[in-house]
Description:
It contains four helices and five strands; from the N terminus they run H-H-E-E-H-E-E-H-E. It is elongated and about 100 Å long. Helix 4 links the parallel strand 4 and strand 5. The chain has two domains: 22-57, no CATH class; 74-144, CATH 3.100.10.10. The protein has helices spanning 42-48, 54-57, 93-98, 131-139; strands at 74-78, 90-91, 110-114, 124-125, 143-144. It is of the alpha/beta class.
Amino acid sequence: MIKLNQLTKTTSSRKKRLGQGHGSGKGKTGGRGTKGQRSRGKISMSLREFGVSFTRRLPLYRGKYRNKRVGTKDLAVNLKYLNVFPANSVIDKESLIKKNIISKNAKDYRIKILGDGELNIPLTVKMPCSKKAAEKIIAAGGKVGK
């Protein structure tokens, strides 16, 4: 004889969706009681562990582009692009603009020479350089400095 507890299950109950209106039986507060710290969401509780709330750590975004990033723009130029210059020429922003290595709009940018590639000609570089770039410029017979 088959017992009632040995029958296969024909229905499955879904998980109760909390906070989906009064008709669900768990509306309004979603089964969390009324007020207090434990009735709030998980995000605000985890942020309280750090001492300062997440919203206080965010900058005040009121209005379009209110908090712009304060800083300068940087541009990197590799050594391999400097081989177009004649020997013993002086490298600065104006000379890079004339040879179209950087655009005319790059006057506001800080430019740094990086050491990617080889340099075959001696040049005088009057710009900031990385250590590797300075070694390669000096090895080619050039000078680095302002």
